[in-house]
Amino acid sequence: MRIYLHAQKLMSEDKLDQAIKEFQTVASTFSKTDIADEAFLEIAHCWTKKGHFNWAVDNLQTIISEYPSSNSAPEASFRLGELYENRAFQDFSLEESYGNFARVFDVYPDSPRANEALLRAGNSLALQGQWLEAVPLFRRLLFQSAGSRFSSDGWLFLGQSLALTGHPLDAMKAIQRVGGQHHEGASFTRVRAQGWNTQLYRFHVIPHSMGLRPMSLALDPIPRRAAVMAFDPNGKLLLVDNERKALVVYSREGKQEKLHALPNPGRALSVDPLGGWLVACGSCVVQDGRSIRFRPTTSDKYIEPKDLKRISLATIQANGNLFLGVSGGKGLYRFDTQRNVLDSSFPPNVPGKILDVTLDPTGRICLLFSQGRGLLARYDLNGKKIDQVHGSALKSKRLTRLTVSPLGYFYLLDGRSQEVLILGSSLDLISRISLHDLGIHKGSQLAVHPDGTLHVLDSRTGKIFRLE
Q1: Do 223 and 314 lie in a common domain?
Q2: What is the mean pLDDT of residues 272-300?
Q3: pLDDT > 90: what percent of the chain?
Q4: Same-domain pairing of 75 and 135
Q5: Cα-trace Rg, the chain
Q6: Are 442 and 226 within 8 A, CB to CB?
Q7: What is the pTM of this model?
Q8: How many domains does the chain have?
Q9: Element (H, E) at 151
Q10: What tens digit of pLDDT does each residue of 188-226 get?
Q11: What is the pLDDT of residue 20?
Q12: Which of 115, 273, 370, 423 places its Cα 20 to 30 Å from the Cα of 149?
């Protein structure tokens, strides 16, 4: 059909407004034919490219409601799942994302997208901390698509789910099944599988024989004054260089990919499971390259004016909510995705000043307090304490930093003794590492790569060491 082909040509040339008009003509003129649903699919694609996500959603939902038996219907559901998982979408919702992916494999089980939808739906549940509910989806995926390009990821995430639900040996068996498929991202899947399997073996088979060795990262350019660091889900290193007043993104090969200018020196860095990042810069927070400032107010439900210049703690949930803390503060501010304040003192009745904050893979809030030699406590999203462990019980001298691995293991830095304490998911001590014995002079920051390996920033030499 000439008008449809011309509209596709316009779309390929990025003449999106003209393409939309022609696709709309096709959809209205041939509304009773098979090409109408395809036109709505292309219109949604154009609106997505233009960043008008709500209009893209409207066109995709039109396909599902008016052409439910068409070949485009499962694709429309899948794309809705992707849109609702896009943080740039105002109506971002992991629940909606899961529901649309689930529609693909429940209503259209023979669709070419069904297996990928199973994987994405399982990941949507995992991002919400519902690892137990994700297990049946990963098992179903592996049953239906043995040997497909999705099976390696299926085995990997099934292993992660089993590890986080208290079955480490079963997790090892699943992760060992990760195969050698050669598709985009497969090599990184194998890297993670190898790292996770090593971590499970060390912590559950030979827990007192770590055998670690430090490997200095070769970064280009070398950071001048590294302050804080983290890894994104793809294994890229994000590092705040306060001499350059910038967030530097390094590739997996150690080459600088991007540099984001910061208005002030960065004090805290957080990366969420979807790859979004934020840096606390004193009086503001920079999120994904955009500066977010908070207006002073006297309401006890909002951030206090005196706190505006002291934001030094930050973490972000998979659903986009922010937790921010201030130097010397005894609670966190919690903001929703629209940056409305949900809490001004989270959690209630904290035992001391907060030194560090992070989220474990199940979405629970993990706080390190200054009380005594340090206190690690976990809270649910309602602020109820789940469990805790005192630094004295771990025979530490002064706990200063905290991070968590993808399999739920805790790494605590003892700044005074220069040791890293490794805790299991139930906060039991598994092992401890002497940084001095590894040639690391003054560890100041910790970060965990997606493959589970621990990285330590030596503030005396400015080097970052990977512990293998």
Answers
A1: yes
A2: 80
A3: 67
A4: yes
A5: 24
A6: no
A7: 0.90
A8: 2
A9: helix 151-164
A10: 888 899 999 988 888 877 655 556 788 999 898 888 888
A11: 93
A12: 273
Strands (E), 306-392: 311-316, 322-326, 332-335, 341-346, 354-359, 365-369, 375-379, 385-390
Q: Which of 151, 180, 204 is the last residue of a domain?
A: 204
Q: Is residue 209 in a domain?
A: no
Q: Which two tokens stand for residue 213?
A: 């060795």
Closest listed residue to residue 447, CA positions, set 436, 455, 437, 439: 455
Q: What is the pLDDT of residue 208?
A: 53
Tokens representing 382 are 């309602």
Same domain for 361 and 263, yes or no, is yes
3-state helix, strand, coil split of the chain in percent (to 5) is: 35, 25, 40
Q: Which of 259, 167, 215, 224 is nearest to 449 (CA)?
A: 215
Burial category of 107 from C-beta neighbours within 10 Å (exposed 0-12, middle 13-18, buried 19 and up): middle
The whole-angstrom separation of Cα 194 and Cα 200 is: 10
How high is the pLDDT of residue 260? 94
Strand-pairing partners, residue 216, are 465
Q: What is the pLDDT of residue 331?
A: 86
Tell me which DSSP letter residue 204 carries. Answer: H
400's enclosing H/E stretch is: strand 399-404
Q: What is the CATH number of the domain that holds 44?
A: 1.25.40.10
79-86: average pLDDT: 96
Token match 């957080």: residue?
Answer: 270
Domain end (from 148, 182, 204): 204
| Alpha-carbon distances of 203 from 19, 157, 191, 423, 452, rounded to whole Å | 57, 19, 18, 9, 12
Asked if residue 407 belongs to a domain, the reply is yes
Helix (H, G, I), strand (E, B) or coil at 342: strand
pLDDT digits 0-9 by tens, 402-429: 999 999 999 999 999 999 999 998 999 9
Give the other-Cβ count within 10 Å of 68's Cβ.
Answer: 14
Reading the block at residue 311, the tokens are 């934001």
- Given a cut of 70, whether residue 303 has pLDDT beyond it is no
